[in-house]
TrEMBL record:
<keyword id="KW-0812">Transmembrane</keyword>
<protein>
    <recommendedName>
        <fullName>SUEL-type lectin domain-containing protein</fullName>
    </recommendedName>
</protein>
<dbReference type="InterPro" id="IPR043159">
    <property type="entry name" value="Lectin_gal-bd_sf"/>
</dbReference>
<dbReference type="GO" id="GO:0030246">
    <property type="term" value="F:carbohydrate binding"/>
</dbReference>
<keyword id="KW-1133">Transmembrane helix</keyword>
<dbReference type="Pfam" id="PF02140">
    <property type="entry name" value="SUEL_Lectin"/>
</dbReference>
<keyword id="KW-0472">Membrane</keyword>
<dbReference type="InterPro" id="IPR000922">
    <property type="entry name" value="Lectin_gal-bd_dom"/>
</dbReference>
<feature type="transmembrane region" description="Helical">
    <location>
        <begin position="12"/>
        <end position="31"/>
    </location>
</feature>
<feature type="domain" description="SUEL-type lectin">
    <location>
        <begin position="74"/>
        <end position="152"/>
    </location>
</feature>
Length: 154
């Protein structure tokens, strides 16, 4: 084997390693769309409190409330299940318990649309829960972000 052949193999190996690094990094990014449709990169996401609602066989209901401090993760129980319906979403002052939520009087109007756009048809989605993502909530204090959704077993 001559030196030019060895060099060529070295360049190819370096190219493969570079592409692997770039595509591996890209697969770890979470991108969500805000109320204006702008894409937002989200890193270091953590879950908030999650309750399990009614299990209807092939489908089940999940309810989650964000702590408004970290990017928020909405996910189904297993990686094969997907979010097929957003039953309730409010960023403001919602009240109630899982499967019995009520909208408050100061919620952001774009909340349901943003959650649907980012989560429907996926196993997991990540959302930043703030005024930039949903638009102004017009609440003075005690802002909550609650979502009730249906997952379908695949």
């Amino acid at each position: 084997m001559d030196a030019s052949h060895s060099r060529r193999r070295g360049y190819i190996s370096l190219l493969v390693i570079s592409y692997s690094y770039v595509f591996g990094l890209a697969s770890n990014l979470n991108i969500s769309n805000d109320a204006r449709g702008s894409k937002i990169e989200i890193t270091n996401s953590r879950s908030s409190s999650t309750d399990y609602g009614t299990d209807m066989g092939k489908q089940y209901i999940m309810c989650t409330e964000s702590n408004l401090q970290d990017p928020w993760v909405l996910s189904c129980k297993t990686s094969k299940d997907v979010v097929t319906r957003i039953n309730f979403a409010d960023y403001g002052n919602p009240s109630g318990k899982c499967e019995h939520y009520r909208h408050g009087n100061c919620g952001a109007k774009a909340t349901m649309d943003v959650v649907k756009k980012n989560c429907l048809g996926k196993h997991k989605c990540v959302i930043i829960d703030n005024d930039e993502m949903f638009g102004a909530s017009h609440c003075n204090k005690d802002i909550k972000f609650i979502v009730q959704y249906t997952c379908t077993k695949e």
